[in-house]
Amino acid sequence: MDEFCIIARYFAPLASEGAFGLRDDAALVPTRAGHDLIVTTDAIAEGVDFFAFDPPDSIAQKALRVNLSDLTAKGAEPAYYLLNLSLPRSVTEDWLAGFADGLARDQKTFGLSLLGGDTGAIDGPLSIAVTAFGFVPQGKMIRRDGARVGDAVYVTGTIGDSGGGLAIFKREKHTLNDADRDSLIAHYRVPRPPVEFSGPLRAIAHASVDVSDGLIADLGHIASASGVRIIVNGEKVPLAPALRALWGADALLRAVTAGDDYQIAFTAAPGLTGPFTRIGRVEAGEGVSLMLGAKEIAVPGPGYRHF
Length: 307
Ligand code: ADP
Ligand code: MG
Fold this sequence. Notes:
Number of strands: 11
Distance between the termini: 37 Å
Low-confidence stretches: none
Shape: globular
Bound molecules: adenosine-5'-diphosphate, magnesium ion
């Protein structure tokens, strides 16, 4: 199959109305009155963000969802995406069908559709770049630079599960039961950004970031953009029982530096309750401090770095 057959068979059924069945040079994005268009892009690569033996539908879902967490953090609702594929020449029709099926399911779950993309062959590892588009009411994008002294710091979901899954793939020794092991691996393969939370987040957040490189590293981005200091109370960081079982006494430090969470960390007024956990506060100063009780814990590498 050449790339035109691949596009027509597997991707055209996913196309948005403005994509003209993926038979034109470009797509048309209808604007939405009273809204700003928010754009983000993230690529995932075999051997770095997923493994060649991962199921193709979960690879597709991960490629999409690592972008949806960025839109969510900005308070945007997903609408469209572009898909750039560098495929090994050995790719099979079964793999492509599974991949397209993962996209189709997530399009339905999260309410977005495909605008277009590019398809090429590569003598090397599979790489998938997605550019996602979402809408926010005009002027309401949540930025990293809005944290204020006196804010509380909150995070959605649990932290570190995906890092735990990756550790298991990397053959780290463990004594987990099958259910706990599978749960951590599932988080690594298919992240669960709280996409439905973008609206409520807009109503409360002063600053927001998606947790992709590690909780401490990503809170560091809010701290530096906002010119504040962030205190994280380690005992408040939500950790799944499976992760505590995997990492024991190391669970906290490893979880807050692991990355690949795709949850949302944000600052807002203290005293709020909702689908999130309060983990700290914003003070005057700079940087991020991880505390256990009154004691500050040294964080060796706050997050994942490519270079
Ligand atoms: P061009 O020759 O201008 O580069 P292409 O032949 O690459 O155009 O693409 C033809 C059409 O197919 C375009 O609408 C493009 O957006 C779409 N397309 C190509 N690859 C993909 C893909 N991986 N996913 C979605 N749409 C794609
Ligand atoms: Mg092209």
